[in-house]
Write a structure and sequence with these properties.
single chain; mainly alpha
């Protein structure tokens, strides 16, 4: 309600939700959007490469410790499976909102499979800002609802004839 005359305040148009590293540049692909996509792609690929190097050093540490082939195999399988699952979970998160309860229960798996998440981020940034499709759909839907609420009828409804 407006304070001065008691009329309802006009509804404001919906604002786009910012995306990490992109802000709201994804809406019109302006203000360095392409450069940001390139930087995100290069950065996520570099982070995945460094992460693989760190995992390689951990593997070498296990090999030097001579703890046995079975434990080493378990570690490699764990990182491979968790990375694959994290990739899929991250990839799906770009097209639909994840369930918060499921997200909390998968936190450990996603931490172990961080390389998969980084690779999903890299591959998605080759085509769009990660999560752009989801945000665009939600933003367009919010704009449609807003437009529908604010569009007014033309004409006087009391002048319409009753049929019956």
């Amino acid at each position: 309600m407006s304070a001065d005359n008691g009329t309802p305040a006009p509804a404001t148009t919906p604002l786009p939700e910012p995306i990490r590293f992109f802000g709201t540049t994804w809406v019109d692909h302006d203000n360095g959007y392409t450069a940001r996509r390139i930087a995100v792609a290069v950065g996520s690929l570099a982070a995945a490469a460094v992460s693989c190097l760190v995992l390689r050093l951990a593997y070498e540490g296990l090999r030097i410790a001579a703890i046995g082939g079975f434990v080493t195999l378990l570690m490699v399988a764990m990182f491979a499976i968790c990375s694959a699952m994290a990739f899929r979970h991250t990839w799906d998160g770009f097209t639909r909102r994840p369930d918060p309860d499921r997200q909390a229960s998968l936190r450990g798996l996603l931490t172990i499979g961080f390389v998969g998440s980084l690779l999903a981020y890299f591959f998605r940034s080759l085509t769009e800002a990660p999560g752009e499709k989801l945000h665009r759909e939600e933003y367009e839907e919010a704009r449609r609802r807003h437009e529908k609420r604010t569009t007014r009828r033309t004409g006087n409804p009391s002048k319409k004839r009753r049929r019956g």
